[in-house]
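Protocol step 4 of 5: obtain the predicted structure for the target chain.
Materials: sequence only (see below). No template structures provided, no constraints applied. The aim of this step is simply to have a reference model before the mutagenesis design in step 5. Sequence pasted as it appears in the construct record:
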Amino acid sequence: MTKPLILASSSPYRREVLQKLQLPFECISPAIDETPLSTESPEQTALRLAENKARKVAENRSNALIIGCDQVATVDGLQIGKPGNHENAVKQLTLLSGKEVIFHSALCVYDSSKQYMQSTIVPYFVKFKPLNPQQIETYLRLEQPYDCAGSAKSEGMGIALLEYMRGDDPNALIGLPVIALVNMLQQCGVDVFSVPRA
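Step 4 output (C-alpha cells):
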C-alpha cells in the first residue's frame, strides 16, 4: 500500500472491525460538530458527517486514504443516539422494546492526494424483543452499553435482546461496513490480499 490508511474515528469498535482486514492503519480522531441539520434525513446526516470527518483529517494528511464513518439510528422515524448514562439507556430500551430500529451506517473513503471521495450508506435492521423492566435493568448493569446507539451491544450479551438482525453486512451495525470498504479500497488500487503484512 503506497499511501497510509487512516481511520478517521476514535471508536474502539470501528478500530476492532477494521483490524479484521489485517491492514496497517492508524486512527485519528476528527474534531467536528456532529449536530444534525433540521433539513436532513438520517441518511443525509450520516453521510455528511462521515465525509466531514474524512475531510477534517485530510487537512493535515495530504497523501492518505482516509476512512470516514458515521451512523444514525432511527425508530419510527425518530433519531436515537448514544444514551451516555444508565437512566437514558433505560428510557431508550423501553422505547425500543418490540420495535425495529434502522441503523444508517455511512462510509466514505477519501483519497486526499487526488481529492477523490467515494461514499455510500449501508442500512442494517434490528428488531428488539418485547422487554420487561427487569430484563432491561439486568442487561444494562451487566454490559453498560452507554456509548452505543440503541443501548445494546449485539456483539455481546445485547444479542439476547434481539428478535432479528437483517442486512448485507453485519459490520454495518457496528458502524464500519467492511464489504463496501473493501470495494472502495479496490477502486483506489488497494487489493487487501496483496498488501504486504509485517
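Step 4 remarks: The beta strands are 5-8, 26-27, 65-75, 78-80, 100-111, 116-128, 162-167. The first strand starts at residue 5 and ends at 8.
Proceed to step 5.
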